[in-house]
Amino acid sequence: MSEFTVQGRSFDHQNTILDLNNQFVELVQNMPSFLSQIRIGEPITATKAEWLNYQSTPVGSYVTETSGVGSNTIKLANTDGLRVGSILRFTQSNEASIPSSDIQVKVTAVNGLTLTVERPYGGTTDVQLAQNYKSFLVSNASHEDEAANPQATGQAVKDYNYTQIFKRDFSISGTEQAIQTYDQSNTYAMKANQATLSVYRAFNSAAIHGLRVERNGSQEGTMGGVLNLCAGGLEENTGGEVSPDIIDNMMTALYSNGVMSNNLLLVMNENQSRRISKFNQVPQNTRVMAARDDRTAGGYLTNFESSLPVTGGFQANVWVDLNMPRDQVMLLNMDMISMRFLRPLQDIPYGQMSDGIKRSVLAEATLEVQQAKTGHAIAKGLAI
User: Fold this and answer.
1) Is residue 184 scored above 60 in pLDDT?
2) Residue 77 burial (CB < 10 Å; 0-12/13-18/19+)?
3) pTM score
4) What are the structural domains, with CATH classification, of the chain?
């Protein structure tokens, strides 16, 4: 018998190469895993996928070195998006107003993380800007008929990831192929289904934990997952039990970097999901949204709404994947994440054995994570 079924579709294993990509896509969309939340992007044509990140103008930054009264230089932790003519205001480190001062400055030059400024600006009162004081962009001033300013858009930064080959081999003797057992059309179909599921699970795990390693003579090459690509970016290190404030801090960090997506996802292991679901048991907490009725005992949280007073709300869906570290929660902007295929899932023959066949289910793909360091956040060191 040469006819078999993979994920509900019939194929003839005597064909040279079988295209399973549509079946793989259906499997991804219907399985409760992180991979099911990732959109499929454009195909790629090389083993190194590259893309450009355009930094959104951050809402705020902070002073890294104390700047005294009358000083015309200010050093900030982040100057992305600032340009000549940018107007800045300042607060204390806790965002409280600076006593007896409404200081604003106008940027006259940007040199890396150092600003040259007109100070004070517009008749405001000058004051010493202590280390860790916060800065916020008020606006960008321009002259009439001003020439285009390259600084206004910022310099795009190139990022990349490598493709990885996800493969599962299987072989079937002539006797196994001839036997029909229980509800399996034949053993070939069963093993092809198992191989497809194995590739899916490996891809899902790599999308979280994979390390970005280039393929060469001694290395097979692997793709970087979200933990690897987002490392060194926005981190929340308060620790202790996960709390609404910790999630709020991450969402505020994204908002401060210009993220205004309605497709945010909180990804975690089941233990952190249980803690987050307990947010719903606090009577005064109105930031969780979970449908319940009088016949239901317990409950789970599916959506978290930030305390930021943003029109339409600033919300994130809650998603569980058992591959996530048990002491971490990630906040991801899913508009910026996609899986991209170099070779879609295929069933490829290895050749006829003396009494049977050997084949391989294989796909080659990578993960694209735009704005990896500025558009996503992670909480680490949480209580398990």
Assistant:
1) no
2) middle
3) 0.76
4) 3-53+160-379 (3.90.1690), 60-152 (2.40.30)
